[in-house]
Design brief:
Length: about 475
């Protein structure tokens, strides 16, 4: 990959989701990106479980043969190029016997200490416009007063007791989620993360039909736990122990190939993202979703819609799959569900019958988690954030498409991917360190991923577009000199 920007290497910014999240098929996610100049330097991207898809893919010889990639690796060995990252040596003082963190996250030298709306502020008071939402986690905005009040009150009353006693907050959350999503007839199982939600969905599917083969899609990301990582298209984050069942891989929207395989009648589940996030904001076509749903029903294959990143209003609909008007067997949610508090869930079609002990979680559906989840739904409803996501997202999409260097803008609502005609690593670094804007990457090195809070205003959208134009102009001038 050639670096047409001629910008110095600075740490890349986080993208996912589930570290999940253009022409890059669907929280820096593949070892691909860790050795790619553009992603190796985005430590925050690597903090998202979904984002390690950017680590260089050892099975792609092209990744290992690109001289630009090798040059970037050499550059990273220069201490001057690592000035924005923590020096690993600082964590390895032989005289220091205190416990250290397991060093899997390259970190930017940025320390957010508070947030408000669509901004976060570092310890020096510098404001950063957040067009990334911490991997699509921040749905209703940082520090929303209603959210803070709800969580604080529950923390003071009773933050946790196990799932061996009545918890009316769980029932209230299920009722509100059904009401806003239009999935009132589904049942809700509460857990703690997107990976855990997908893990339980795959387990439920196998309970239902007694099968084990799963259809998944290239560039897809579903988490890092045992079964979830097995259906994630990134061999570099799979250990031998994760290879416990057969996965049948297909390209997104390859209707004929998928239908032919389903027709054999031996597939346990088909798992697909409402919008591929880390892969680069790619959308399943309406006709594709309708065709696979019909075939899944006919073949008793469980259709799992992973809405961990694309759900909770981000697409302008509560769930992205609702654009196709289908009804999946299972729907998984997390990220924006808690606005930063760890919570996940599986929406389960009424055809599934619950049994004691079938699923379980120590912390899933705790009093505090439910309070956070209820606050999010209440704000989405009262402030009409789905409508705002559709309106502001449509505006951003149209304005980005007018930019000369932008080849394509993909996505819906406030889940957008702008593909440029050059790798965006330097662009994202300049946005972060010069213009103080957080944006995200994708497994496609030319795609800029945008996942802001659903409360993003027109004024804030315009400010981002202005800052983006400023950086692009500087890069163009630098190239011409």
């Amino acid at each position: 990959m050639s670096n047409t920007s001629n910008q110095p290497d600075i740490p890349d910014i986080p993208d996912v989701q589930d570290v999940q999240d253009p022409q890059d098929p669907q929280d820096i996610q593949d070892i691909q990106d860790i050795q790619d100049p553009q992603d190796l330097q985005d430590p925050q991207d690597l903090q998202d479980p979904q984002d390690l898809q950017d680590i260089q893919d050892p099975q792609d010889p092209q990744d290992l043969q690109d001289p630009q990639d090798l040059q970037d690796l050499q550059d990273l060995q220069d201490p001057q190029d690592l000035q924005d990252l923590q020096d690993p040596q600082d964590l390895q003082d032989p005289q220091d016997t205190t416990m250290k963190l397991f060093n899997v996250y390259p970190l930017f030298d940025i320390q957010p200490v508070r947030g408000e709306g669509c901004y976060v502020y570092d310890e020096k008071g510098q404001a950063y416009l957040d067009l990334y939402g911490g991997h699509a986690v921040i749905s209703i905005g940082h520090g929303h007063p209603h959210y803070v009040e709800r969580v604080k009150a529950q923390l003071e009353a009773l933050p946790f007791y196990s799932n061996s006693v009545q918890n009316p907050l769980q029932e209230a959350l299920a009722e509100k989620l059904g009401q806003l999503s239009g999935c009132e007839d589904y049942q809700l199982f509460l857990c703690n993360s997107g990976a855990e939600a997908n893990e339980n969905a795959l387990k439920l599917a196998s309970f239902r039909n007694g099968r084990s083969k799963v259809i998944a899609f290239r560039q897809g990301f579903h988490g890092r736990t045992s079964a979830a990582v097995r259906v994630t298209d990134n061999p570099s984050i799979q250990a031998v122990i994760n290879h416990g069942f057969e996965v049948l891989w297909y390209e997104l929207n390859d209707t004929e190939a998928v239908l032919n395989r389903l027709a054999k009648g031996d597939v346990c589940a088909l798992i697909i993202e409402g919008i591929q996030g880390i892969g680069g904001i790619y959308m399943p076509k309406v006709e594709f979703l309708r065709a696979i749903q019909k075939a899944c029903v006919e073949q008793d294959t469980v259709l799992i819609l992973d809405e961990v990143q694309s759900g909770y209003g981000r697409s302008g609909h509560f769930f992205a799959f609702q654009l196709a008007g289908i009804q999946p067997h299972l729907i998984t949610v997390a990220k924006g569900m808690g606005n930063g508090f760890p919570i996940g869930g599986v929406l389960i079609h009424p055809e599934f019958e619950a049994k004691y002990g079938m699923l379980g979680s120590t912390f899933g559906g705790s009093h505090l988690a439910c309070a956070a989840g209820l606050a999010v739904l209440e704000v989405i409803e009262s402030e009409q954030l789905m409508k705002n996501a559709a309106t502001i997202g449509g505006y951003l999409k149209a304005e980005l498409a007018k930019m000369e260097q932008v080849r394509e803008v993909r996505g819906e609502g406030l889940m957008l991917g702008a593909e440029f005609d050059f790798p965006v690593a330097a662009l994202r670094k300049a946005l972060l360190f010069e213009e103080h804007v957080f944006t995200g990457s994708a497994s496609c090195p030319k795609t800029l991923r945008l996942l802001p809070p659903l409360s993003l205003s027109r004024q804030e959208a315009d400010l981002f577009l202005e800052k983006l134009a400023t950086v692009l102009s500087k890069m163009l001038k630098a190239q011409s000199t």
